Amino acid sequence: MSGRTIEISGRKVWILESGNGAPLLYLHGFADVHSVKDSWLPFHEKLAQRAKVIAPAHPGCAQTDENKDIDVIEDVVFHYLEVFDALKLTQFNLVGSCVGGWIAAEIAARHPEKIRKLVLIGATGLFVEGALIGDVFMMAQPEYGSSYASLREMLFSGVNQPNALELFPDGKGDLEDEVRRYQMLRFGSRIGFKPPYFYNRPLRNRLHRISCPSLILWGEKDRMVPRVHGETYARLLPNARPLNIIDQAGHSVHIEQPEATARMVLDFLAE
Amino acid sequence: MKPVQLFCWHFMAYPYLDKDFDQKQYSGWVTVPNSLWDNHKALGLYQEYIDQLAYADELGFDGMVLNEHHQNIYGLMPSPNIIASALTQRTTRGKIVILGNLLPLHMNPMRVAEEYAMLDQMSNGRLVAGFAPGGGPETFNYDVPSANTREKFWEAADLIVRSWTEDGPFAHEGRYFPLRYVNLWPKPLQKPFPPVWIPGSRSPSTMVEVAKRGYCYFLSSRSHGGETHRAQQEFASVLEKHGDRYHPFRFGILMSTYVAETDQQAREECEEGVWYFLKNCLKGHLRREGRQLTYGPGVPYIPAAAWREYLKGYTPGRKLLGDVENWQELDASQSIIVGSPETVYRRIQNLIEKAKVGNLLIQFQLGNMPDHLARKSMKLFAEKVAPPLRHDSLQLFTREFPGANVEHEAAEALH
C-alpha cells in the first residue's frame, strides 16, 4: 500500500493505491478506508490481490483538502472528473460503498463511457418513497453517554461486535481516528444533511444511461439504506445482475464479510 | 462608566409536563412528541410569560431577553420577534434583546433585517439585535447542513448590517444569499445601527469575527466556573490583537437565579421548578440521558482542526449540567444561584469581579415555576440585589477600566 498526494485546481487529493492489474477505483463510505482508518481494511487488501486498487479520500477527508464550494452531489462529481483527468484514467472499474456508491452512480450516469464495470455496495443516492435513508448525523450524536453505539447499530449487524467496536469505539479513542470520523461526517453533511437526504431525485431517471455491467451488493441487515434501494438499483440499471444479498452483515458488508464481498467483486470484474 | 446591566431573560418553557416525563420520554428536544401539548392547560401561558417580562420592565431591569428555539419544551419561542413585538407595546424603558434570530434557518436574511428594523422603530430604538448560528437541535429540526453554517451565518449577519447602514437599492453578490435588490424599508431607528450581540461557546474563530466587527460577545454557557473567566480573558486578548480594548460591556453571560427571604426558603420555593428545568428542559440538550443533540460529530459545524483541539479537552460521557444529581453539585456549577438577597448578591458580585462582565442576562422563571414565585423572586432581586450590585460594579469598573468609552458601541436613538 502506498499513499500519495495529487493536486487538482490547487487542492490536494490524498490517494491510497496498491496491487496490479486493471485499475479499480474505490470510493469510500462512512465505515471505510479514509473515514475510520488511514490504511486498507482487509477487504481492500483482498481486492488488491487481483486489481490495482486506487482509493482517493473525499474532499475534507484524510489528507484531502476540504472544498467549501461543495453544496450538492454535482460538485462532488466534478471533483472526481478532475481526479480522473489528473490520474489519466480513461476507462476503469468503479466500486463505491455507501455514499461512495452514490457518487459512483452519479459519475457513471454522466460518463458511462468511462466505466468498464460498476459495483455498488449499500449505495445511497436514490429516492424511494417510504424508505428514508438512515440519519447518520443524528446517530452520531452521543446517546446515554455512549459516543457511537447508535452509529454502530446503524452501520453494522451487531452493535457490540468486535469490528464495529474497533472502528467506532466509545470513550476517548485515538485522536486522529476521532478526527477522521468527524471529517467524513463533515463531508457527508455538505451533500446529505438536508433534504435530499443522501439522495438525488433525478438520479433514478438517469440510471438507464449506465449500460456497463453492474453488480449491486447489499447487507442482509442493512439498517442505513433499506434493501428496496438495492432492489431499485438492480431493476433500473440496464445491465445489472440480480441484487446480491450478503448474509450475516449489516450496512458495512465490506467490513463484516470482507472475503465473500471481495470475492464477489473480483469474480464479477473478471467475468 | 456605567454599572452592570441587569437583564431579565425568559425562555418560556412548557410547564405542564407530567411528573414522569423524564422516566417516560427520550428527549425534550426535536423529537419530543407534540401530542403532549395541552391546549386547555396552555391557554393564557404566553400572556403569563409576557406579563412577567413587562413586570421586569416596571421593576427597573435594564432590559428583557428573548431567544429562538424550535420543537422543544425548553423554550416556546420559535419566533422571538413575535414576543418582542408584544413587548414594544407593553414596555417603555428597557432594552429588548433578541439573542438571537438564528440566521442560517432563514432562507433570506432580509426577513431578519426587516423585522429587526420594524422592532427598532416600534420600540423607539430599544432593540439589541442578536444574531446566532443555531446549535445542534436546530440543525436537526431545520435541516441546516453543518459544514458551511458559519460562513452562511457571517454572510447573513454582514448583509443585514449593510442593509441597515448603506443606502439602497444595492445588489448583494454573496456566495449564499445573492440578492439583486436590497433596499430596506423601514430602516432601524438607532444610528448607525442597533447594538449587535453574538453568542459563542469559546470558539476562537467566533471571538475573532466578533472582535473584527466591534460587536458584543455573549458566552452561551450555563455554568460559571473558571471557564467564564477564561472566556473573558480570551476575548480581551482577541480584542487587543484587533487594536481594540476590552471593557465589561463587550461581554455578557447567561445565568439563572432565585431569590427569597432566606436561603432555606429560596431553596424550598424554587426546587420543583429547578429540577423540572434540569431534568426535562435540558434533556436532549445538556444531559447524557437520551440523545444529546447539542454537541457531537453529527453536527460538524467547526473545521476539523478546531474539532481536534476541542477533543483534547473532551471526556466522552462526562456529566453535563442536567446530569447533576443533588443540590450540592448544582450549587457548585454556579449555574443557578439560589438564596437570600445577601447570598445572591455576594455570589453574583463575586462572578462580576472574576469575569469582569458587564451584561448579566438572568433567567428568573425556571421550568414549571409558578407565576407568583417568579414575580416574587424578580421583585426581591430588583429591590435588594440589584442596588448593591450596581453600586459595587460601578466602583469596580471605574477603577479597573479607566477611560473606557462604554457608550461608543451603544447606538443613540434619534429623538
Brief overview, please?
Chain A has 10 helices and 8 strands. Chain A has 271 residues and is an alpha/beta fold. The two termini of chain A are 26 Å apart.
State the main characteristics:
heterodimer, A: 271 residues, alpha/beta, 8 strands, globular, B: 415 residues, eight-stranded parallel barrel, two-stranded antiparallel ribbon, 14 helices, 14% strand
Tell me the total number of β-strands of chain A.
8
Order of neighbouring strands in the sheet with most strands of chain B: 1-2-3-4-7-8-9-11
Helix content of chain A: 25-40%
Basic shape of chain B: globular
Oligomer: heterodimer
Chain-averaged pLDDT of chain A: 97
Please tell me how large the radius of gyration of chain A is.
17 Å
The separation of the N and C termini of chain B measures 23 Å
Task: Give the CA-based shape of chain A.
Answer: globular
Q: Which blocks of ≥5 consecutive residues of chain A have pLDDT under 50?
A: none
Strand content of chain B: 5-15%
Rg of chain B is: 20 Å
Instruction: Determine the number of helices of chain B (DSSP H or I, runs of at least 4 residues).
Output: 14
- Poorly predicted runs of 5 or more residues of chain B: 408-415
The ordered string of helix (H) and strand (E) elements of chain B is EHHHEHEHEHHEEEHEHEHHHEHEH
Main sheet properties of chain A? 8 strands, mixed
Describe the structure in your own words.
The complex is a heterodimer of chains A (271) and B (415). Chain A is of the alpha/beta class and 271 residues long. In chain A, 35% of the residues lie in helices and 17% in strands. Chain A has ten helices and eight strands. Chain A has helices at 42-48, 73-87, 99-110, 136-139, 149-155, 162-167, 175-192, 227-236, 253-256, 258-270; strands at residues 2-8, 11-18, 23-27, 52-56, 92-97, 115-121, 214-219, 244-246. In chain A, strands 1-2-4-3-5-6-7-8 form an eight-stranded mixed beta sheet, sandwiched between helices. In chain A, strand 3 (23-27), helix 1 and strand 4 (52-56) form a beta-alpha-beta unit. In chain A, helix 2 packs across helix 3 (99-110). Chain A is globular and about 50 Å long. With 415 residues, chain B is of the alpha/beta class. In chain B, 42% of the residues lie in helices and 14% in strands. Chain B contains 14 helices and eleven strands. Chain B has helices spanning 21-24, 39-42, 45-58, 80-90, 110-122, 136-141, 149-165, 204-213, 226-241, 263-281, 304-312, 327-332, 341-355, 371-400; strands spanning 5-9, 63-66, 95-102, 127-132, 170-172, 179-182, 196-200, 216-219, 251-259, 336-339, 359-363. Chain B has an eight-stranded parallel β-barrel with strand order 1-2-3-4-7-8-9-11, surrounded by seven helices. In chain B, strand 2 (63-66), helix 4 (80-90) and strand 3 form a beta-alpha-beta unit. The longest helix of chain B has 30 residues, at 371-400. Residues 408-415 of chain B have low confidence and may be disordered. The chains are: A alpha/beta (271), B alpha/beta (415).
